[in-house]
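During the second year of the project, the team shifted from modelling isolated chains to modelling whole assemblies. The rationale, set out in the original proposal, was that interfaces cannot be judged from single-chain predictions alone. As a representative example for this report, we include one of the complexes processed in the last quarter. Its constituent sequences, exactly as entered into the pipeline, are reproduced here:
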Amino acid sequence: MNQNSQNPFSAWMDMNKNMLETWNNWVYPANAKTDASDSGKGTGAENPMKAFYDYYTKGFAQNPMYSWMTGDGNNMMEQMNRQWQENMTNMAAFIPNQAVKDTFNRFISSYQAFNGLQSYWDMFLKNMPSDITDWNSFAKPIMSYYENLTNTFFQPFLPGQLSSFFVAPMENIQAMQQSFMQFFKPWMDDSAVLQGHLIKALQGDKDAYLEFLKVWSEVYKNSYSKALRMPMMGASHEQTEKVLKLLDYYVNYVVSLNEYFVLITQSMSGTMEKLLQNMMELQKEEKHPKTFMEFFKLWSSVNEQAFQELFVTEAFEKIMNETVSAGSKFKVLFDDFLQDALSFLPFPSRREIDSVEKEIYELRKKVKAQEKEIKQLKEKIEPVKA
Amino acid sequence: MNAYSFDFQKSMQEALNMSNKLMSGLHTMMDIDEMGIATTPKELVYSEDRMKVYHYTPVVSKPHSVPVLVSYALVNKQYMLDLHENRSIVKKWLAEGIDVYMIDWGYPTHVDKFLTMEDYIDGYLNNAVDFVSDQHKMKGINLIGICQGATMGVIYAALYPKKIKNLVTMVMPFDFSTDDGLLFRWSRHMDIDNMIASANGLLSGDSMNFGYNMLKPFELSFDKYISFIDRLDNKDSVMDFMRMETWIYDSPDQAGPMLSKFVKDLYQENKLIKNKLVMGDRTVSLKHLTMPVLCMLGQKDHLVPPASTRPFIDAIPSKDKTLLEYPVGHVGMFVSSKAQNEIGPKIASWIKEH
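Output from the structure prediction step:
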């Protein structure tokens, strides 16, 4: 069998065959006479270390399956190791003597810490950069791994009650840290971009302001918006959810409306600037508007043209539809919230009236269908009656 | 002396003239009693919920034997066709001997906001056609559809081909895949369901008007009025202007399900031309449109671009089909001098020939 074959089944069969051959040689009867033709056989009893080494290397290490199990990107060995540790821990539960059980568990915990440190060491050796300039990009992920490791080093050695008092909050702290990082990460990642755009916007650059709004909106959606849309708990969770969602919808609507109006005013301002520049050119040719009415007509036609050009752009279509959609969603939820809030008043709500109107609509249809049926039946009966 | 030569005196004069015109315009407008809209005599002959069918009083002794039923759009009022005695395409048809029935869809209220496209086409339109057919003891009548009313007419004729003898469409949106019109572009990604929900199921005519004005914001919001000030002291001009203004802003509210289906199935998914539009339990198939068809469009129509109407002729199997194009806009198709002198008479003669 070709050792380079990628067929895992064939690789598995080869590995087993090699192992069996090695095993055969290893456990060949120690008292069997050896001669030149039997060289290498029955060496297990004489040299167990060499025998095990042969078993390992011929059975495993030269086999593609071993490479597949331990190679980069595959953590089969690591998984097997972890499973073995878990099995040991589970089996320890059957140790009858409590003191022995506790000690054995400490052995396992120590081994796990040792193993964890070894993984860290492997990672360090594997990724160590060849030159010092790479140090920062290399150091960050492995130090992060090491910090996680140190958090769990001493927990297994804590007394039972203290362990549960300590472990759960430690996990919560990690979860909290992660949550905070994730919540503020979008803002941190884009803070430089936001700052850059805002500075330009404050200096009057409307394109920069549009970009600022777009980035802000995106960052908001990935942070606060998610928080506002979280499910709530408690007796009034529905109302609370509605209020928070309403706030979220309002923010989205205001941002979209902002973008929409900036596009409009940007177009108008830009057009006016061009118009004023053109006026100077037109004056040279004596074609400039000489009265305000003439200027108004020119202003109107130029702006109309500019708006037609703006309206057919994808950016405008997108922001217009987004603004209308955001506004509609906000209005729908606001109406819903208002009806809930005013439900204590002795007035029928839109919901209640809608259900009555729907009933009227359905009844009207039924009545018409029945009238039609009656008319058709009458037409059939009339000749018979006659 | 300033760098830019500006005639201040002329400007001042213009401003004063404008003020004077506004003052006299105020007097003119205070003098208006009746608008004189839709004055052609007619009679209410059928009604169902908000819908009414009017029969115009024939002016010839023997009108054409096959009557015409006009299906106008839902988004505006049908009296555009009879705006004034001097601008009435209905009057032209009557003069040519056409027997005219007109559907008035009415003004939907909250009770009507559940109306679906099936209710309008299988219900109201079908019942109106049946009524007119029964009145004349005919199996097939002539149907003239206008704008959205023409799209509805085409859907109806495809579902009930035996009930329609001849089909006329005017400024009809048919193929919604074109990018030529702003309305078509903007509708493509419109969140129509949320818009309707925000209006409690009945989208107001005012918001529809706002949308239409946005298509040409300067022309329709400022220019139109500033330019007209100069004619405010002319009562005839003012009356014409006021009749148009009355019609433009007399937009009925739109029932949610009908509007939603029209936007989603037609504007967004273009199902009609693909023969994929489903009405109730049937699919609308254009292959049933075998009756004679006259299709008319306005080449300067910014609401229904010609590219939307032209594909209709090739999409139907009718052997007698005609496409006519006129250099007019959407509304000009009915109120321009071309409408009076060419378009109205052409429809009448075509109907009489078929």
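The CA atoms of residues 49 and 109 of chain A lie 28 Å apart. The radius of gyration of chain A is 39 Å.
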